[in-house]
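Worked example

This section walks through a single chain of length 189. The input is the sequence exactly as stored; nothing has been trimmed or padded.
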Amino acid sequence: AHLLRGSGAAGAAGMSPVRGRLVRPMLGFRRADLRELAVAEGLPFLDDPENEDRSRLRNRIRHEILPLIRGSVNPAVDAALLRTARLLAADERHLAGLADGIPLREVGSEIWIPAGALAAVPPPIAARVVRRALRRLLAPHPGSEADVRNVLRVAAGDAASLPFAGGHLVSRQGPFLALHPAGAVDPPD
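Given that input, the structure is written out below as tokens.
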């Protein structure tokens, strides 16, 4: 579903089996296989009724589109999608690790990004740094593609300041980009 929404590598990589203290040990298994094992072993299990709700895109994909692809295009589409997700997850971890090397500063209610660091890294890494800063300011939203583009335009010197999501503002502050919260009347000198 994330892939169809254009979410990029992070979304297309799917759920992470481990994120902080949250561990999902069953992600590598098909639901039908787990159900079969539970029945064979006499173990209780519960199917989440949300997984049958066809108004949700992920469920329409699971119940309508994937069976069509299995039957007419690729019977091994599930394995192909999992392989693609694993590859994208590895790429995303690497790029995110590089982006995490660029520090963000909190100055009052603002988030500051070193502009020179954004200019020194490839665009995919710079975009991840900006999304991390936007997520910190807009928690948990990482900003839209247009928001990221506006921050990078100010970093490149195309504009002194530009708006983004919900009345927020990005401006150049010496060697930094400052992401100002909504309601900031004017960027500081």
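What to look for: Helices lie at 2-5, 8-12, 31-41, 57-72, 77-100, 115-120, 123-138, 145-155.
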